Amino acid sequence: MADISNPIEPRTTALDDVTAARFAEHYLFTDADFLLARARAVNAARALPYLAEYRLNTGTYFVLSLACSDASPSIAELSQILLVSEPEAETLVDELERLFLVARRPDPHSKNGVVVKATPQGDELFATARETLLNMDNDPMSALSLAERKQLVELLSRIAF
Questions:
Q1: Over pLDDT 90: what percentage of the chain?
Q2: Is residue 40 a part of any domain in this protein?
Q3: Residues 13, 46: contact at Cβ < 8 Å?
Q4: Is the predicted pLDDT of residue 4 greater than 60, yes or no?
Q5: Does some domain include residue 39?
Q6: Total domain count for the chain?
C-alpha cells in the first residue's frame, strides 16, 4: 500500500535555535497542558507520514487498533474512548469500511447494537502499521529510557482515565 497519490511530507518538529532562545523563559515551556499538547502534536506529526503509507491517519489508526481487539467496540464506545462525537466516530469507521479494513457486526450483547470488528485485511494491515510505527525514524519516545517510557505511560494513564 505504499503507493499513495498524495504523500504526506515529514515535518520538522524541533524549534530552531533562535526561536528556542527567544521563548525559553516563556511560561508555556513549563506548563503541563501545553507540553502534553505539544508532545501529542510532535508524535502525530512524526507518525503521520508512516501511517499515510497505509492510507491511515491517527484517528483511523486508533479505531483500527480498537477494532482489532477481541472486545469489538461500539460507535458509542469509540466515541467515549477517543473523545470524539459519535458522528465523528462513524466517519472514522466509514473510512475504514471503504478500505475493507473493518466491518460493522451485530453486537452479541445488545439486541439492536452494532460493533466494529477488523476484517482479516484490517488485522494484517494494523499489525504491519504498528510494527512500522514502533520502528519509525526519529521516534519521539526514543529520547526516553525503557523505565522512563513505562513511567510516562503510567502517569498519562492516570491523567487520561
A1: 73
A2: no
A3: yes
A4: no
A5: no
A6: 1
pLDDT over 90 at 8, yes or no: no
* Residue 37, all three cell numbers: 499538547
pTM: 0.84
Q: What is the domain extent for residue 78?
A: 59-160
| Model confidence at 2: pLDDT above 50 | no
Ramachandran assignment for 72, one of left (phi > 0), alpha (psi -120 to 50 degrees), beta (any other)? left
SS3 for the chain is: CCCCCCCCCCCCCCCCHHHHHHHCCCHHHHCHHHHHHHHHHHHHHHHHHHHHCCCCCHHHHHHHHHHCCCCCCEHHHHHHHHCCCHHHHHHHHHHHHHCCCEEEEECCCCCCCEEEEECHHHHHHHHHHHHHHHCCCCCHHHHCCHHHHHHHHHHHHHHHC
Q: Is the pLDDT of residue 94 over 90?
A: yes
What's the grid cell of residue 69?
481487539
Residue 54 pLDDT more than 80? Answer: yes
Any idea what the CATH number is for the domain that residue 72 is in?
1.10.10.10
